[in-house]
Amino acid sequence: MGHGWEGVVLKLMRGRDFTLTVTGAEQVAERYRRLCLSDGGMLRATGVHPTMWVRLWFESEGRPHQRAYTLVDPDPVEGTFSLEFALHDGCASDWARTAKPGDTIEATVQGTGFTVPDPLPSRMFVIGDPASLPAINSLLGAMPETPATVWFETPHPSDADLPVRTDAERHDLRRVPRRDAGAHLVDEVRAALPALLDGNPSAAFVWIACDAATTRRLTAYLRKELGIPKDRVNALGYWRTV
């Protein structure tokens, strides 16, 4: 399968292509599926960093489409990692539902990057949902000693049991049902965050990865109303409502 004009652009931007092979699959929850893969030499070639992601290529209606997914438990020595899919309608979810050992998929590495804050924050605040769960877990693993409050939005009842890798001693996990197109999550964060900042917004680090509209609203609130410095906020809309 060719990658179309997007593939050409990624090549010009020094994207690197690899072929991944499915080695196993696990239905984690009703709408959440984990695939184990061998990396085709990718991790040794690119290295690994927290929240690292790859672009997978799918075909839909005869055209190539790419979607980004965060690596779960990457092992450069063994050349393995997993990918987790929040299942919905679409070509990526359709592929993930039926993928079996031996199946292959093309991937491009380009654009991924994350640097652990320096100095480390006194407290971390993480806001996400099933689509960003792998990145949330990677982030928490990258700063295991940093206390964190995690707001985890759950669009479906089965999402309430998804495996957020929190430590009860250091992490405060708050599962928030999705209501009013994300407005309920925004309200929950606004109600709690000012007191949690304890008058020192510059000492915190806030990481947000929700739907695009909710991410924009939260980012504006953090910057304009709470005065959190730009370099202490990492925000990215992971998906768009339709």
Short key terms for the protein model shown above:
2 domains, Rossmann fold, 242 residues, 12 strands, Elongation Factor Tu (Ef-tu), domain 3, single chain, alpha/beta, five-stranded parallel sheet
Task: Offer a concise description of the structure.
The protein is built from six helices and twelve strands. The protein is an alpha/beta fold and 242 residues long.
Structure description:
This protein is α/β, with parallel strands linked by helices and 242 residues long. It folds into 2 domains: 106 residues, Beta Barrel (Elongation Factor Tu (Ef-tu), domain 3), CATH 2.40.30; 113 residues, Nucleotide-binding domain of ferredoxin-NADP reductase (FNR) module (Rossmann fold, 3-Layer(aba) Sandwich), CATH 3.40.50.80. 25% of the residues lie in helices and 34% in strands. The protein contains 6 helices and 12 strands. It has a 7-stranded antiparallel sheet. It has a 5-stranded parallel sheet with strand order 10-9-8-11-12, sandwiched between helices. Helix 4 links the parallel strand 8 and strand 9. The two termini are 28 Å apart.
H/E series, N to C? HEEHEEEEHEEHEEHEHE
Number of strands: 12
Strand coverage percent: 25-35%
Helix content: 25-40%
Number of domains: 2
Radius of gyration: 18 Å
Head-to-tail CA distance between termini: 28 Å
Q: What structural category do the secondary elements indicate? A: alpha/beta
| Assigned CATH class of the largest domain | Alpha Beta
Oligomerization state of this entry?
single chain
Mind telling me the CATH superfamily name of the largest domain?
Nucleotide-binding domain of ferredoxin-NADP reductase (FNR) module
Q: Largest beta sheet: what is the strand line-up? A: 4-3-7-1-2-6-5
State the shape: globular
Please give the CATH architecture of the largest domain. Answer: 3-Layer(aba) Sandwich
Biggest sheet architecture = 7 strands, antiparallel
Mean pLDDT: 94
